[in-house]
Amino acid sequence: MNTPEPLTPLPRHLVEKAVREALEEDLGLAGDITTDPIIPAEARGAAAIVVREPACIAGLDLAEAAFRALDPDVAFDRIVDDGGKAKAGTAIARVEGLTRALLTGERTALNFLGRLCGIATLTAAYVDAVDGTGARIADTRKTTPGLRGLEKYAVRCGGGVNHRFGLYDAVLVKDNHIAAAGGIGAALSHVRARGGHMVKIEVEVDTLDQLREALTYPIDAVLLDNMDVATLEEAVTIAEGKVVTEASGGVTLESVAAIARTGVDLISVGALTHSPRNLDSSLEWEQ
Q1: What sequence ranges are listed for the domain Quinolinate phosphoribosyl transferase N-terminal (predicted)?
Q2: Which of 106, 1, 125 is nearest to 53 (CA)?
Q3: What's the pLDDT tens digit per position in 96-135?
Q4: Catalytic residue from among 174, 192, 200, 261
C-alpha cells in the first residue's frame, strides 16, 4: 500500500491573502446589499457545511478564514479534517457566529471548498487506482493562476505528491529547450554552469534513444513523455534505477494502473488541477 505524504498545513499568509482577495471581489465597494438590510447587526446563527457527494476534504482553513474575516469571534468546528473522507450528505464542519458574517462569507467559503475538495477527490481516485504498485501520483504546473499553492495543497490532501512549484525550484529541460539549445548536451551544460548544487535536474525524453543519451549525463530524473505502456516498460529497464522515472502525457483514470505497473516511480497528471469537477457542497442553516 502506498504511504501518503505527511500533510503540512497551508501557510497562514497564503490563506489570508486568498480569502482577502476573494472577499474583495465579492463585496466590491458597497458590501452585501442583500444581507445587511435583512439581518440585524447583532443577530447570531449557526450552520453546517455539508458535502452532497462522496469527498476527500481540502480547504477547511480557507472556509474558516472566510467567516473569521467577517466575524473574528466565529466558532468553526471541524467534523472531518483536511485529507479525510466524507460520505455524501454528511457535515464536515459547523460554524456559529454573527448571521451577517455567515451569510456574506458563505459563497467564498464554499467556492474554496468546492475547488479544493474537487482536486483532492480526483487525486484520491488516481492514488487508489495505483495502490500496490509503488508508483506515486504527482501534479503539474497546469494550475489556476494565483491559486497554485492552494491547488497543490489539495493534491497532497488527496494523497498525491507535488512536482516543482514553479520555474524557480527545480530544472526541467523540455523538448523546446533541447531544440533551442541544439541538443540535450548543450542544454545541460548551460544548466550545470548556472544551477546551484542543491537544484535537481530532470530531462524530458520522447524516445528511447533520447533516454539513453540523457542517461550519459549527471541528471536526477527523466520525464518519459507520451510513451505507450510497452515503451515505458523498456524505458524503466534502461534506466535501471539510476534516476527517478516519471511518466507523463495523456494519463487518465482508465490508463493509470497499467502505466503504474510498468515500474515508473512517478506519474504526473495535469488533469488533477486543470480539469477537476468542483465538489457539490452547501451551507445548511440550523434553525
Answers
A1: 32-117
A2: 125
A3: 999 999 999 999 999 999 999 999 999 999 999 999 999 9
A4: 174
Catalytic residue among 139, 151, 225, 265: 225
- Together in a domain, 163 and 259: yes
Report yes or no on 98 lying in a domain.
Answer: yes
Catalytic entry in 142, 192, 200, 261: 142
Please identify which of the residues 107, 192, 200, 261 carries the catalytic annotation: 107
Domain membership of residue 24 as a residue range? 12-127+276-285
Whether 269 has a binding-site annotation, put simply, is: yes
User: 174 an active-site residue?
Assistant: yes
CB 48 within 8 Å of CB 93: yes
- Please say if the pLDDT value at position 142 is more than 70: yes
Clarify whether 42 is annotated catalytic. Answer: no
C-alpha cell at 89: 450528505
On whether 204 is known to bind a ligand per the annotation, the reply is: yes
Domain count along the chain: 2
Question: Could you tell me if 268 and 163 are in contact, meaning their C-beta atoms sit under 8 angstroms apart?
Answer: yes
Q: Which residues contact 122 (CB under 8 A, 6 or more apart)?
A: 158, 271, 272, 276, 277
Start-to-end Cα distance in the chain = 45
Task: Let me know if 44 is a catalytic residue.
Answer: no
Comparing C-alpha atoms, which of 70, 90, 88 is closest to residue 78?
90
Q: Do both 153 and 255 map to the same domain?
A: yes
148 catalytic residue (yes or no): no
| pTM of this structure | 0.95
| Active-site residue, 142 included | yes
Is 250 known as a binding-site position?
yes
pLDDT at 258 over 90: yes
Among candidate residues 61, 204, 246, 265, the one labeled active-site is: 204
Judgement on whether residues 170 and 213 belong to the same structural domain of the protein: yes
